[in-house]
Amino acid sequence: MRAFGLGLATGVLYFAGTLYWITNVMKQYGGLPPVVAVLVNALLVGYQAFFPAVFAVVVRRLFLAFGERALLTVPFVWVATELGRTYVFGGFPWVLLGYSQATTIPIAQLASLFGVYGVSALVASVSAAAAACAATRVLRVRLQAAGAVAILLAVTAVWGSWRAARAEWTHEGQAVTVGLIQGNGSEAQRRDPAQALSLFQGQLRMTRQAIGAGADLVIWSESALSPYRLEDSPEIAGLVRRVAREGRVPILVGSDEVVRARPDRWYNSAFLMRADGGDGGVYRKMHLVPFGEFVPLKRLLFFIGPLVEAIGSGFDAGTDPTLLPVAGHPVSVAICYEVVYPALVRQFVVGGSELLTTITNDSWFGRTSAPYQHFEQASMRAIEEGRYLVRAANTGITGIVDPYGRVVERSGIFEPALIVGRARFLRTATVYARSGDVFAYASVVVSAGLIGLARRRIQ
């Protein structure tokens, strides 16, 4: 129980410090009383903290069975719990340990082999070595632990630096100039008809500027048309189509979609308008945001309903990883929170995506660390898949990331912004793109096997 308690306390401290902004989202946009908003956030923090608690219990059991050698298992057990956090009860894989290295380019290259989970394992191994040094007075053990991790870090850093410096993929494939539109509309502005129209007109104006600057593809953010819906607002849609047709440039735009059937189906979608103004295709968001677009365990958490109604009225999940054709090249779209799921983005690449795009509306986050967390997690997908990633965010951060995780262009937050920059359509696959989360699932198998062995030893 002591191990569980310490692990839980560690998790609470970590997630309370990284997910604090959710309380304000629930209070300001969900209409929840402050006390209820805090309690709901506490439930989420507690759920997230459960996984470090399980990690601590498992490592403690392995330590009892194998002694100090159990510290060698730490990276595998940690990754196993992160994989659980990604999928259990729908998952919430926000700020996995590996994302701490997103801006440390040489180390982050490890994601091209093993995904973000491989980077998490490397960070966990450093902590395990530090624990080994602190837990033993035997100089030989300390030197072995520190030396092994130092070699591992050095090899990773040297290889990663070489890979990033080589940067061969930044010169392959057909170049494409993208225009990214950051309209900077708050939710309050979107609810006011006059301000909403002004925001829309501003995005049209920036689109014309992007086309004038040579953009081959223009991308608007998630909810860029809100409160309008593309299919139900022919005048609004007609203006966007006209700009695309006059500029001979396709436009990708986020909009809610209602499929009239029995019953009606509501989707958070991305529509592609071709260069001739016609319909180029639609992608429907497959992985919805818990408590934002749907309520998990709805009967138990009935009091969260107002939050979903305020943000999205309750969406249906799309079922197909649809790719959209741009200049003869298949392009993928991850909408908002979807970009933190490595396997989902990989699914697009396996299907043929040559350019990763992601659109989001981060205005809910306010001026907190959340927009920065979101952008850096998106950046890791570029390294994993060996693709350029272009991102259009309503209030920021909008930007372009190259296949090595380097930020080519980026905006600030809560400011109108237009970014016109160069990316490329790429086809070459990384090791991770070909093999997926083999390392992560292998970590689960290794952890389970070690737990079985430990049980025999202790008995």
Explain the overall architecture.
The protein is α/β, with parallel strands linked by helices. It folds into two domains: 2-168 and 436-458, no CATH class; 173-427, Nitrilase/N-carbamoyl-D-aminoacid amidohydrolase (4-Layer Sandwich), CATH 3.60.110.10. It is 49% helix and 16% strand. The chain has 15 helices and twelve strands. It has helices at 2-18, 21-28, 34-66, 74-87, 105-108, 111-135, 139-166, 187-191, 193-212, 234-247, 305-311, 342-350, 370-385, 431-435, 438-458; strands at 174-182, 217-219, 251-259, 265-273, 279-284, 324-326, 329-335, 355-360, 389-393, 399-401, 407-410, 417-425. A six-stranded mixed beta sheet has the order 5-4-3-2-1-12. Helix 6 runs antiparallel to helix 7, helix 6 crosses helix 13 and helix 9 packs parallel to helix 10 (234-247). The longest helix has 33 residues, at 34-66. It is globular, with a radius of gyration of 23 Å.
Brief descriptors of the model:
alpha/beta; 2 domains; Nitrilase/N-carbamoyl-D-aminoacid amidohydrolase; 15 helices; globular; six-stranded mixed beta sheet
Question: Briefly, what is this?
Answer:
This protein has 459 residues and is of the alpha/beta class.
Global shape: globular
Number of strands: 12
Tell me the CATH architecture of the largest domain: 4-Layer Sandwich
- The tally of domains stands at 2
| CATH fold-type name of the largest domain | Nitrilase/N-carbamoyl-D-aminoacid amidohydrolase
User: Distance N terminus to C terminus?
Assistant: 19 Å
Beta content comes to 15-25%
- How does the major sheet shape up? 6 strands, mixed
> How many helices does DSSP assign?
15
* Strand order within the widest beta sheet: 5-4-3-2-1-12
- Element order: H for helix, E for strand: HHHHHHHEHHEHEEEHEEHEHEEEEHH
